[in-house]
Design goal:
With about 900 residues, the chain is mainly β. The chain has 7 helices and 52 strands. The N and C termini lie far apart (about 60 Å).
């Protein structure tokens, strides 16, 4: 049933007025005895007066104070906590909290998962509002989601971060696992002319490159503390050098011809064989510059204005080179010897003497230019009346990213064959002739028009491809609250919010053919660095191979006759989303009981525009627009019971939703594989329904000493509707190349009746003599339905076991910490042949040590990824690898100062 927003808001206002009128008529009451919560606060204040605590221990006390006094299930990190962690970004700091994990495919965390839920199902709010996010376009986990890329956000601008694992009606909806609220600093909260800064240097032992980083914050306010200005600038640069061994999924041996010699199981037709085996060398320069500013004005005791802004600009240019063989995507008829073990073809010889042509192997050199930017501005007015408090906010946020452009160049193996082998631990490829001179392309026939799509693929040198993304939101919000003393009701809050969001992608590219024959030695060749592939258990020609010069590749592609640019219709889409929210929340307290109850009413309209291929004229596309509209009431209940001054019991029940990724809502199809021959695609579904879940949270917390906590938290997510991906084979024409190929297409569909449940055990203590410990362990499990084939559906990014152990020492000017974390294997996506792709268990060990030289200056030394852990992906079983990567250790030295 459709409910008018105006009627709903009027009803809330009427109810609020009735409550206020009844309160005004209520007789005066005698002063009540202090609650356990009040006593605990007084006790803590007394302890803080007795012992002055600063530094890391002080930050833990601040975080515990936030958690202790919250009505919901909340974890927090203060600014000094972030500043003293040896973390590259805020996501790494959050990963030390219970139930929070990050994916480290490119070394540093970019997005977080909360309580075993996909990162796309956890929202990030900057000062309570959406912050737009752009991605650099090369990370497979980059999606047009609703979360934020934390690698763009420098920790120095953060005052504190709160993670609401149980929702409240006043907080924006859209999270299944939890909502992260980032609070930036305000000028009137700091002394006048506060100046803080840092200068540092980072070094990565795999890229063997080092770069400076720095930050500065200046805050001013007038003598009356009624007007202030704050600005913070940050600069961060790092060079990544990632080595990888990749498998392009698996197909079967059903199309193997020629009666190869077989060892092991003779049933090779049903055995799986790698589509391709690749040796990848990825180099990226990440440079991020940001500014955050705030104006704060209190003209009188009742009014306050805050204007805050954020601008972050990042360059993520990268050069990716890879050399791969293709036993399962063109060479099944050239196999002469194979070994079959446990249903997999684990080794084979591909020969050029079978009479079926030259075996296919390719060397790619792709240079991607990417600039990612995020902007945000928010104007807030607070009015503190004698009875009412009103807050009005308007704001705008936008982000952009993508490939702008990407230069793609390839070289083919000219003569000879190869052999391959793998066992889930070790991988090898050996060419008969893998020298630089044996890689090149033939010239195109004289007189061929530029970008002629009728020529075979061996005449295509590559192309230039653009794919840019836009993400923006406008919003307006009004909130009202009133403190009451009407029985157990202590405060009532209400509000309305309007948002208009757009997310879209534009894409175009061309085909560039050769004119004369080309050879790899003509492109300023080099070789992969020595030791680059150490630790990846790779051998043969996977670890030492010729490379092309980036400048030579770009110059050649720009100088060649340019084929016409064609819109890549399958990848283009736009989603316009309008939401209208209204909420009512009642905060209550009676004796040892406290909490809140409320409801948030959500009205969402999505309009998706995309292109679909024509059934009448192959290779042409028609624009389609689809509109969906839904309404959801989302009730919440948070209840806390103070057993005594040190112990709290909590329980929470809430209905929540998380909206689908924007790209999933559009029917667009994103194609990949033109340069690798591994033809895969992802398609959207404009009829997707949002994730819907009933969340249950409970915790028992014992604050047995300052900066100390023992807690047990349980959570259950009964997900009535969620989204999974399925894979099918489809014939698709790529409009940028004009070629039609069979693609393995993944697309999202709605499923139902899943449950995620788990327990978190948290222990934190200031032991004494400067020593302390933080540790937490989370156990999660999921139950889901099965698909039509009877296979169990998996929920992405859920690790059954995660643990963090952080011993620390802080005494006098010295401070040191060790951070150890481990997460068990987790599902990431659906791959070829409907295989389930998992990331293996991952361990992280970081170290930080600091010395306060004077009251105004200190130095910090830190090291991250000391174990140089391997990020390993596999298809269903561990001896069927998908990818294995190493990003190296990072060492840094930072000088911090304040005036």
């Amino acid at each position: 049933m459709t409910i008018s927003k105006t009627l709903l808001c009027a009803s809330i206002l009427y109810a609020l007025a009735a409550v206020a009128q009844a309160q005004d008529a209520a007789p005066a009451q005698a002063e009540k005895p202090k609650t356990a919560q009040q006593k605990a606060a007084e006790k803590q204040a007394q302890q803080l007066q007795e012992v002055t605590v600063t530094g890391y221990r002080g930050s833990l006390e601040k975080a515990i104070d936030i958690k202790r006094n919250a009505n919901a299930v909340v974890d927090a990190i203060s600014a000094t906590d972030i500043g003293k962690f040896p973390d590259t970004n805020a996501a790494e700091s959050l990963s030390h909290l219970p139930g929070i994990t990050v994916d480290r495919q490119f070394g540093e965390g970019e997005k977080i998962s909360v309580n075993g839920t996909d990162a796309a199902l956890n929202r990030v709010l900057l000062n309570g509002q959406t912050i737009a996010s752009g991605d650099w376009g090369g990370n497979p986990t980059d999606t047009s989601g609703r979360t934020f890329n934390y690698s763009l956000l420098s920790p120095e601008i953060i005052g504190r971060m709160e993670v609401y694992k149980s929702p409240e009606a006043r907080i924006d909806e859209g999270s299944i696992g939890g909502t992260v609220i980032i609070h930036t600093r305000k000028p009137l909260d700091l002394p006048a002319n506060t100046l803080r800064g840092s200068l540092g240097y980072n070094y990565n032992d795999r890229s063997k490159e080092g770069n400076p980083r720095g930050s500065a914050l200046w805050s001013w306010k007038n003598a009356d503390s009624t007007f202030g200005f704050l600005t913070s600038v940050t600069h961060d640069k790092e060079d990544l050098s990632r080595a990888g061994i990749e498998f392009f999924g698996y197909t079967t041996g059903a199309n193997i011809t020629g009666n190869p010699n077989v060892t092991g199981d003779p049933n090779y037709a049903n055995a799986k064989i790698p589509v391709g085996i690749n040796s990848a060398y990825f180099q990226q320069e990440r440079e991020r510059n940001g500014i955050q500013s705030a104006l704060q004005w209190r003209p009188d005791e009742k009014n306050e204005f805050n204007l805050t802004g954020l601008y972050v600009k990042g360059k993520y240019n990268n050069f990716s080179e890879s050399r791969y063989v293709c036993p399962g995507c063109g060479d099944l008829n050239k196999l002469t010897d194979i070994n079959v073990n446990n249903g997999y073809i684990t080794s084979g010889t591909v020969s050029s003497t079978t009479g079926n042509g030259q075996p296919y192997a390719e060397l790619d050199a792709n240079y991607r230019k990417t600039e990612v930017s995020t902007k945000s501005i928010n104007l807030r007015h607070d009015f503190n009346g004698d009875a009412w408090m009103f807050t009005s906010q308007v704001g705008y946020t936008s982000a952009s990213g993508g490939k702008d452009p990407e230069y793609l160049m390839k070289y083919l193996l000219r003569n000879g064959g190869y052999d391959f082998g793998y066992d889930g631990r070790n991988t090898s490829v050996n060419y008969q002739n893998g020298s630089a001179a044996n890689w090149g392309l033939p010239g195109s026939p004289a007189g061929s028009p530029p970008g002629d799509t009728s020529l075979p693929g061996q005449n295509q040198a590559g192309g230039i491809y653009y794919e840019t993304t836009k993400d923006r939101e406008r919003y307006a919000q009004f909130d009202a609250s009133r403190d009451l003393d009407w029985g157990p009701i202590k405060q009532i809050q209400m509000g309305v919010k309007y948002t208009s969001h757009f997310n879209g992608t534009n894409s175009r590219g061309n085909r560039i053919n050769t004119t004369d024959a080309v050879s790899l030695p003509d492109f300023d060749p080099g070789s992969t660095p020595g030791g680059l592939f150490d630790g990846l258990h790779a051998s043969g020609d996977l670890t030492d191979w010729p490379t092309a010069g980036k400048g030579a590749v770009v110059s050649y592609l720009n100088a060649q006759p340019q084929g016409p640019y064609t819109l890549n219709y399958p990848a283009m889409f736009g989603v316009a989303e309008v939401t209208r929210d209204a909420y009512l929340q009642v905060n209550y307290e009676s004796g040892k009981w406290r909490g809140n109850v409320g409801v948030r009413y959500v009205d969402t309209k999505d309009t998706s525009s995309y292109y679909v291929s024509s059934d009448v004229i192959p290779g042409t596309y028609n624009r389609v627009t689809t509109t969906t509209h839904y309404y959801k009431p989302l009730p919440t209940l948070n209840l806390a019971y103070d057993l005594d001054e040190d112990k709290v019991l909590r329980v929470s029940v809430a209905k929540v939703i998380a909206r689908p990724r924007y790209g999933d809502l559009a029917g667009a199809t994103s194609l990949s594989g033109a340069s690798t021959g591994n033809f895969t695609a992802s398609a959207g579904n404009p009829n997707l329904k949002p994730y819907q879940s009933t969340n249950f949270d409970a915790s028992a917390e014992w604050y047995f000493a300052p900066a100390s906590l023992l807690s047990l938290e349980g959570f259950v997510r009964r997900i009535d509707s969620y989204i999974v991906t399925t894979t099918s084979e489809r014939s698709i024409t790529d409009p940028t190349t004009g070629q039609t190929n069979t693609y393995s297409v993944t697309s999202p569909v709605n499923a139902s009746n899943a449950k995620v449940s788990g327990l978190s055990l948290i222990y934190q203590q200031d032991i004494g003599l400067g020593f302390g410990i933080q540790t937490n362990y989370t156990y999660s499990k999921a139950t889901t339905q099965t698909n039509a084939a009877g296979d169990k559906l998996n929920l992405p990014y859920l690790s059954k076991n995660t643990i963090n152990i952080i011993p620390y020492y802080e005494h006098g000017p010295w401070s040191a910490r060790i951070n150890y974390s481990r997460r068990s294997p987790y599902f990431t996506q659906v791959g070829r042949l409907n295989s389930n792709v998992f990331a293996d268990a991952y361990k992280e060990l970081d170290l930080s040590a600091s010395y306060q030289i004077t009251e105004w200056a200190g130095i910090t030394l830190s090291a991250t990824n000391l174990l140089d852990s391997t990020y390993y992906q596999y298809a269903d079983i561990k001896y069927a690898p998908i990818g294995e990567y190493k990003s190296g250790r990072t060492y840094s030295m930072t000088l911090n100062f304040k005036l």
